[in-house]
Amino acid sequence: MVTAPIDTAPYSEAARRMLRPEDCALAVIDIQEKLLPPIFEKERLVRNAQLLVRLADILSLPVIVSTQYEKGLGKTVEEINSLLPETKPWTSWSSAASTIANTAPRSGIWRNRNTLLLCGMESHICVTQTALGALNQGLNVHVAADAVSSRTELSWKLGLNRMQAAGAVLSSTEMMIYELLRKSGTPAFKEMLKHLK
Q: CA 111 to CA 100: how far, in whole Å?
């Protein structure tokens, strides 16, 4: 999938850090009604984004949703929207990162969140710019490579390459899920397992 691995000390340090629920927030980027139809492997993207939204609910992770030009491009697709908590979509490509970075020091649900999990589209535009914004704010970024996409396979891969080169950790939906759940047998694991079968 990625043409060349990044072998730098900062990247390996970020990749070595285990995900912890108390550190994470999930950003769902632009999975909109009129944007989705031409997306490469859109069924994969929607299914995996649904899993991440379900995980966020089970683990009480904050969720940020972005949309672009809702009047022309539509709302977040119903398959995702029906799973989301009541939330107002953000409308800037890097607003998810800014929202977390600007509110993290405050009290409440954002307190001490330093890791942004990303899913959505398009990989090479909105997802990449959100990742870059978050990285430039000093946040850790993990991208579920199988929960992001673009209109073409090339653009999807180029987006992943750019994010990884910038320091975002590429992962998969299942990697994130099992890493955040930590172990089997817990109530959270049992709840999530229903959706993984």
A: 9
